[in-house]
């Protein structure tokens, strides 16, 4: 049955993406995709490679622009059409209000700079210049990400995969972003390390109520983390719903196959 | 009787199984009401759809037809069609689902798991923790387990944690899916005491019990699901 508009939840969606489409030559990456994320919510996006889920996340991070569609963040002093902003304004908005953790730490970190320096770089964007404050805040952020502080000056290249993800996370949350984007944050990590990183994310979400969007092909990750889930395939949203409902009573043939394959 | 908190009208649920190209029929044309403070027992043979009905009311399953009119403080809302975020809000605030299965989360201590609903509802961390410990004790979980991770507990101990968590926050509507299964006698009587207190406070409850005798004193009415057709409601 068709679902009604929210009536009880008074808040506006914090993040709103409407009717976004993108092609690369003949390849359709996204086709009329819409998504809304409410404050304090965790939206999971699941799908196989090529489903468009990571492209969508990069658009939420304003790294990439669609051919058509609209994007807004419900924050004071932020323009209504984010895709229409110029490159500099997009970069500033991204640095100030959006945090991201990539699957590949090379995308998010300067691998040969110190870990603390990587986090402090984020704080510099916000105009902080006092060395002692930068260092203290970087330390706090690393601590919140459960990074071992005795290694805070080691460059990411010398760290394990799990620790690199914690540095990315510390950098992403340093400025208390309005939304935290996670692109396969634990893919490629050992299962035990994966559980620890998810734990940290879960704790941060619980304690700080950070709004998150998490992309993964791993249903277990989505099930652990998300409140609601969007299932994507070939650039389209196949199905969306509460996470327990989508996993227990999937509606689309594709989702049923996906869920049954995993169980 | 007071205004019902739940009015179910012509509710139907079936499961479309695409890979078999057929539908599995659960129930249809189901109608009943539930008043605040009322305790309704769902009965019927195994596989008749009792748990399916509870999950449909909670919206873990999507109904295919009918209405589930819920009397929210803001006004009536149809849970069959309500937006996902509204359902999430109601679940956090006033509609509880109690099962025999723990929604296990790695590396969260039992006491934190139990305290979480209170913290979410805005209670400060310390008093939430104190109350969580009180309920763990009430359900017979030994103090040395409070800091431990329930994923390592036995089935019975997990269920006690689960119940403490599910019942710590007074709800307005509780859906009970065999909550007494695999509980020892002490925990079972703690559960019945808690349900009795909640009933006194006006919480409406509807549930499936493997041994209805456990809650005999609480039952106001019986809704019987029949294999073929609809439910018969006995007053």
Q: Can you give a write-up of this model?
A:
The complex is a heterodimer of chains A (about 260) and B (about 240). Chain A has about 260 residues and is α/β, with parallel strands linked by helices. Chain A contains ten helices and nine strands. Helices cover about 40% and strands about 25% of the residues of chain A. Chain A has a six-stranded mixed β-sheet, sandwiched between helices. In chain A, a hairpin with a 2-residue loop joins strand 8 (about 230-235) and strand 9 (about 235-240). With about 240 residues, chain B is of the alpha/beta class. Chain B has a domain at about 105-170. Chain B has a six-stranded mixed β-sheet, sandwiched between helices. Chain B has a four-stranded antiparallel β-sheet with strand order 2-1-4-5, with helices on one face. In chain B, strand 7 (about 175), helix 6 and strand 8 form a beta-alpha-beta unit. Chain B is globular and about 50 Å long. Chain B starts with 5 loop residues before the first strand and ends with a strand. Chains A and B meet through helix 7, strand 9, helix 9 and helix 10 of A and strand 1, strand 5 and helix 2 of B.
Summarize the structure.
The complex is a heterodimer of chains A (263) and B (235). Chain A is of the alpha/beta class and 263 residues long.
The proportion of residues forming helix of chain B, as a percent range, comes to 25-40%
Spans of chain A with pLDDT under 50 lasting ≥5 residues? none
Strand order of the largest sheet of chain A: 5-6-7-3-8-9
Query: CATH topology of the largest domain in chain A, anyone?
Result: Rossmann fold
How far is it from the N-terminal to the C-terminal residue of chain B, by CA? 13 Å
CATH H-level superfamily of the largest domain in chain A: P-loop containing nucleotide triphosphate hydrolases
Total strands of chain A: the figure is 9
Q: Tell me the number of helical segments of chain B per DSSP (H or I, 4 or more residues long).
A: 6
The helix/strand class of chain B is alpha/beta
Write down the overall mean pLDDT of chain A: 94
Percent helix of chain A? 25-40%
Could you tell me the mean pLDDT of chain B?
90
Whole-Å distance between the termini of chain A?
Answer: 26 Å
Number of strands of chain B: 10
Interface with most residues: A-B, 33 and 35 residues
* SS-derived structural category of chain A: alpha/beta
The rough form of chain B would be described as globular
Radius of gyration of chain A: 18 Å
Q: What CATH architecture of the largest domain in chain A do you see? A: 3-Layer(aba) Sandwich
């Amino acid at each position: 049955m068709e679902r009604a508009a929210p009536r009880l939840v008074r808040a506006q969606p914090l993040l709103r993406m409407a009717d976004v489409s993108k092609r690369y030559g003949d390849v359709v990456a996204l086709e009329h995709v819409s998504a809304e994320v409410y404050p304090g919510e965790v939206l999971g996006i699941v799908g196989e490679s090529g489903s468009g889920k990571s492209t969508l996340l990069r658009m939420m991070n304003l790294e990439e622009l669609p051919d058509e569609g609209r994007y807004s963040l419900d924050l004071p002093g932020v323009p209504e059409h984010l895709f229409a902003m110029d490159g500099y304004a997009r970069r500033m908005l991204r640095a100030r209000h959006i945090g991201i953790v990539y699957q590949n730490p090379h995308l998010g970190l300067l691998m040969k700079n110190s870990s603390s320096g990587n986090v402090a770089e984020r704080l510099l964007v916000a105009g902080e210049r006092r060395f002692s404050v930068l260092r203290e805040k970087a330390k706090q952020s690393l601590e919140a990400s459960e990074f071992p502080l005795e290694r805070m000056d080691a460059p990411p290249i010398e760290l394990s995969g799990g620790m690199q993800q914690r540095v990315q996370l510390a950098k992403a949350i340093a400025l208390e972003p309005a939304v935290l984007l996670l692109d396969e944050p634990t893919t490629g990590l050992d299962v035990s390390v994966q559980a620890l990183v998810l734990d940290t994310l879960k704790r941060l979400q619980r304690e700080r109520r950070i709004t998150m969007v998490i992309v993964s092909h791993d249903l277990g990750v989505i099930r652990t983390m998300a409140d609601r889930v969007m299932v994507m395939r070939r650039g389209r949203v196949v199905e969306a719903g509460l996470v327990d409902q989508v996993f227990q009573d999937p509606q689309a043939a594709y989702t049923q196959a996906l869920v049954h394959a995993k169980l | 009787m007071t205004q019902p908190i739940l009015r179910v009208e012509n509710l139907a649920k079936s499961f479309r199984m695409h890979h078999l190209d057929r539908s599995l029929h659960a129930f249809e044309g189901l109608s009943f009401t539930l008043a605040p403070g009322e305790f309704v027992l769902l009965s019927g043979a195994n596989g008749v759809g009792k748990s399916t009905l509870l999950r449909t009311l909670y919206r873990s399953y999507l109904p295919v037809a009918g209405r589930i009119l819920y009397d929210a403080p803001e006004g009536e809302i149809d849970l069959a069609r309500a937006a996902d975020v509204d359902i999430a809000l109601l679940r956090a605030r006033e509609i509880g689902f109690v099962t025999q299965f723990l929604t296990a989360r790695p590396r969260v201590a039992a006491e934190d798991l139990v305290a979480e609903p209170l913290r979410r509802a805005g209670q400060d961390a310390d008093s939430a923790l104190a109350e969580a410990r009180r309920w763990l004790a009430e359900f017979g979980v030994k103090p040395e387990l409070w800091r431990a991770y329930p994923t390592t507990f036995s089935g019975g101990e997990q269920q006690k944690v689960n119940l403490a968590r599910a019942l710590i926050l007074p709800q307005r509507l509780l859906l009970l899916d065999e909550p007494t299964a695999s509980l020892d006698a002490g925990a079972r009587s703690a559960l019945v005491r808690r349900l009795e207190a909640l009933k006194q406070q006006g919480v409406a409850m509807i549930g499936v019990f493997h041994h209805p005798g456990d809650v005999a004193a609480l039952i106001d009415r019986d809704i019987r699901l029949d294999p073929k057709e609809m439910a018969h409601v006995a007053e």
